[in-house]
Amino acid sequence: MSPEIEYVDPIDDKPKSLEIIEKSEIRGGYTSLVNDEPEISPDPAVEDELKSSNEETPQQISYPPGYSTREQREVRLRKKAIELGEDPDKFVTITEKDKLDSIAFRDRMQTDARMCGYAKEAEEDPSEYMDMTVRERLISEEIIRRSLEEDGIISSWLGTDEDWKKTVNILQENGML
């Protein structure tokens, strides 16, 4: 007599990823990101096991001369917000819209720089012709820098391209950055 074979449904023992949904909520006149998901504490035993099996010595990142760290850039953004009379917390908060807007950042910046030149020639106020606000320019640059850093790139056209440096200088000279 042969053994009887039972059909058993396979068990999916892979951990399910948590989906975090950020909702925009207005509080006291300012927009803040809210996570409505409950906070789940990791299992300490599993976490210790992962740490011991993946222990590596952290590598020191070497930045090129003049490169600002993320913390230094945030301090600069907060100071600029205060200088412009805006709420620093709101100013430095990067939204999904900001991330989408940053895709066209370089072209929009170059257009604004050209408009500064046009306005100067016409003896008009350059701010009347700007496509981007100061915040949009600064936040878009920050989004790009963070994205590059996450990919391990600490130098890019933002810091090395001569045409780009001219664009930034024109905007800075006209108080648009």
Biggest sheet features? 2 strands, antiparallel
Count of β-strands: 2
Helix content: 40-55%
Q: N- to C-terminal separation?
A: 85 Å
Strand order of the largest sheet: 1-2
Measured by DSSP, the beta-strand proportion falls in 5-15%
Structural class, by secondary structure, is: mainly alpha
Low-confidence stretches: 13-41, 50-54
**Broad shape:** elongated
Provide the residue-averaged pLDDT. Answer: 72
Q: What is the H/E order?
A: EEHHHHHHHH
**What Rg do the Cα atoms give?**
24 Å
Number of helices: 8
Protein name: 2167_t:CDS:1
Task: Walk me through the structure.
- With 177 residues, the protein is mainly α.
- Helix content is 48%, strand content 7%.
- It has helices at residues 44-53, 70-83, 88-92, 96-101, 105-121, 134-150, 157-160, 162-173, and strands at residues 22-27, 30-35.
- The chain has a two-stranded antiparallel sheet with strand order 1-2.
- Strand 1 and strand 2 form a beta hairpin.
- Helix 2 packs antiparallel against helix 6 (134-150) and helix 5 packs across helix 8 (162-173).
- The relative contact order is 0.10.
- This is 2167_t:CDS:1.
- It comes from Paraglomus occultum.
- Residues 27-69 are annotated as: Disordered.
